[in-house]
Amino acid sequence: MLDAITALSPLDGRYSRQTSPLQSIMSEYGLVKARITVEIEWFIALSENAGIPEVPTFSKEDVQKLRDIYAAFSPEDAKAVKEIEKTTNHDVKAVEYWLKNAFKAVPEIAEYSEFIHFACTSEDINNLSYALMLKESINNVVKPELSAIIATLRSMAHEFAEIPLLSRTHGQSATPSTLGKEMANVVYRLERQFKALETFEFFGKINGAVGNYNAHMVAYPAVDWEAHAQNLVINHLGLSFMPYSTQIEPHDYVAELSHIMSRSNTIMIDLARDIWGYISLGYFKQKVIEGEVGSSTMPHKVNPIDFENAEGNFGISNALFIHFAEKLPISRWQRDLSDSTVLRSLGSAFGYTLIAYKSLQKGLGKLEVNEAIISKDLDLNWEVLAEPIQTVMRRYNIESPYEKLKALTRGQKISAEKLSLFIDSLELPEDVKVELKKLTPHNYIGKAVELAKKI
């Protein structure tokens, strides 16, 4: 029954093609491979420590043979580990037994195989494995996809910088902007989140059953185990070192990462809804794809499905990320298992995000600006010029400017002619009146063009 059409989750069914970049990283195979990687690097680090003479320093060739084991680790190998787990009923212990068997292929180091998993608790291996998986997912999948979306929006900001747009505050006509400036707003917001990802630290610990190197100190009391652990985490695995923990790494960084992801996703939900609204107003047309059906009963429709799809999947992703942020930093006393089952869904959160990224990017690529509709909307809303006129009236100390414009415009459609007559009635210098009469809903856009072009 295990097939895309019978998959319980759409991540592995309907959307499996979109989520494929994550499958080798965040799947069960990815987790087992990461565990193999951590166990081997710990074994290598032990051999490098002069205070542990029972494990000799391995040659460069032997170290490479060890690293080749995880470099070549395949889904078939992961299945073999899972077969062992059927007997052990313990996933990390199954990794240890699989490695002992794999070491037989390297006779030079096979006799030291009892040092696999030396002084480690399972959580030493697991926390580092998840950190490696998260780091690879962010660097190899999330950042490239998010960067591409930002680049698309930046291009739109520049291309549409000079297209005036009627703003809507509270759903009502408001001071005009430009279409490009509205895209620039989103670019800036997403860039802030992207920078947070670029400098993000992924933490790991390897300090034993309750975080104090208890067993380590009994076996080798003269070894600086904290320095040894730090060397493994930073130099072997490329992570940041967590010096204080209980049995589990406290997961604060996972919560922080989840918040960054949910914030950036929320920004894109905001964008998807706005674009959806602009399509509804006719500001954007969507390119018609040959063979596509918009509605099963209404042949004329070209639905904004990509933006709806993005919104829905960002929402599912955020529900998971928010749960991670709230739950994972909490563990009863020195350890309970409630985090373990939750961590297994990390890949799902990234999977739904990836689906949403691709839907949003696809939707943005199908948009065509309908300048005629945008222009017509501006022409129908001359009352938005009440703002600049009353502001100039304030400058020249004309009494009750806001109230006078409110009486003239609130809840009413105003023509260019009516506005011109109002300006003529004001006690303003003639040259000021001339400049005010030059204002239109199309050119009352402030610095919008400049702001859009420089993003």
Written account of the structure:
With 455 residues, this protein is mainly α. The chain has 3 domains: 16-118, Fumarase/aspartase (N-terminal domain) (Fumarase C, Chain B, domain 1), CATH 1.10.275.10; 136-373, Fumarase C, Chain A, domain 2 (Up-down Bundle), CATH 1.20.200.10; 381-453, Fumarase/aspartase (C-terminal domain) (Ribonucleotide Reductase Protein R1, domain 1). It is built from 20 helices and 6 strands. The strands form 3 sheets. A two-stranded antiparallel ribbon has the order 1-2. A two-stranded parallel sheet has the order 3-4. A hairpin with a 2-residue loop joins strand 1 and strand 2. Helix 11 (252-281) packs antiparallel against helix 12. The longest helix has 38 residues, at 122-159. It is elongated, with a radius of gyration of 30 Å. 39% of the residues are buried.
Quick overview of this protein structure:
With 455 residues, the chain is mainly alpha-helical. Helix content is 62%, strand content 5%. It contains 20 helices and 6 strands.
**What's the N-to-C terminus distance?**
51 Å
Succession of helices and strands? HHHHHHHEEHEHHEHEHHHEHHHHHH
- Which residue ranges are poorly predicted, with pLDDT under 50 across at least 5 consecutive positions? none
Radius of gyration: 30 Å
How many beta-strand runs?
6
CATH-assigned homologous superfamily of the largest domain:
Fumarase/aspartase (Central domain)
The largest sheet, given as strand count, sense and whether it forms a barrel, is: 2 strands, antiparallel
EC number: 4.3.2.2
GO molecular function: lyase activity
Domain Fumarate lyase N-terminal: 13-312
Enzyme class: lyase
